[in-house]
Amino acid sequence: MRLIPMYTWNKGFRNFEHRHESFLNRPWSQGLILLTCVVLAMLLANLPFTRVGYKEVLETPLSIHLGNFVFPHGMTVEKFINDILMVVFFFAVGLEIKREMVYGELSSRKKALMPVIAAFGGVIFPALIYTFVNIGTDAASGWGIPTATDIAFAIGIMSVLGDRVPVSLKIFLTALAIADDLIAILVVAIFYGGHIKLLYLLGAAVLIFFIYLMNRVGEKRSWYYMIPAIGVWILFYYSGIHATMSGVVMAFLIPMKPRFSREYYYHKRVTFRRLLHEYDSYEEPGGFPNALQRGLLRQLSHTSLNCIGLSYRLEHSLAPWVNFVIMPIFALANAGVYIPGFEFFNVFHFDPTLGSVSMGVFLGLVVGKPLGITLASLIAVKTKIGTMPAGASWKMLFAVACLGGIGFTMSIFVDTLSFADYPEYTEHFRDMGKVAVLMGSLAAAVLGSVLVTGVNKLSSK
User: Fold this and answer.
1) Contact call for residues 290 and 282 (beta carbons, < 8 A)
2) Whole-prediction pTM value?
């Protein structure tokens, strides 16, 4: 056997590490992982030897039983994913929305109006199309399913399309998706909660007010927010408002200002530089860093960390966990829909009593989203409320708006909350909704990509 020299191993490891980091940093990497998990979930739900086990795993109880005390009541693996792990997702989304509203694309009236108006159009039109298809039927309550845009898939596809999409439209669609997330959060909170229990809700309000006061008096240490956040989640869970909303509320209460000021940072940096220079000449048997240097480096790390706002630190640290752990797990748990072969071609069947969840969702995503975004943008420009993204044509805006029909994450999440009023049809409705979300998102992605490529070719001639 031929031995590989150590330097080759090291070089190979560094190359692997570099490729690993490069893959995770690619804008399309999250979308690729999510798509893989969707395919795997569909296989697990439909293959004869995995179908039963897949469902049993999701229905496995996770509640803690201590005598007559049960906490959380009714918790299963599926509910753990949707009611606890998704809280972290919504918390991260809330941090991103807050950052954009304070310093980013939604921070001023001029910046925010165009994508916000377009986002409202992209919510209203799909809801109207779904309602038109299902009005007067048992499926009518699912109107919120096709109203969302999945920012991860949209950005991933735009990154693959490269410079064929103007930079201004990439920013426009990203800001639109963020505004769309905020609207979707409000839709879930207002229309898809359970029976409201005012006592728990009042307790949550009191605790939230206490956290708000902490923020106002300048408290910026993380544990002072993370521990009360658990209490807020528990109170939301039992109040009838979906528990994921606690993540959004907490995100808006996390301080953005750093604990240490710029002046303090500059003062400490000069001090650290002087002390490090002094300690450089002091050698210990253990080598670098010696005991004095280790203590100084810990102080430097502490100071540097607290010169970054808690909100930014949490958003940065949570991003890889949300993108590459929580969202793939969510896709594995929620995208698996059992579809018997003979029923696959009847997905869009319309019943006068039951309606057609699939038809409403599919048309809402593929037709309603681009029409709503484009018409709302047109109204905003014609009334001079908003301005057209620089270097963009209406044809290209419509093509990019088609990518807004990629609903996936939020659409599937709303689907899991819908149709509770019809327990005998709930599972069927939700399964058809998920199938339509997957098919509609795929169709929107293909349509948008083809149109962007076609418009780009026409404009370049």
Assistant:
1) yes
2) 0.76
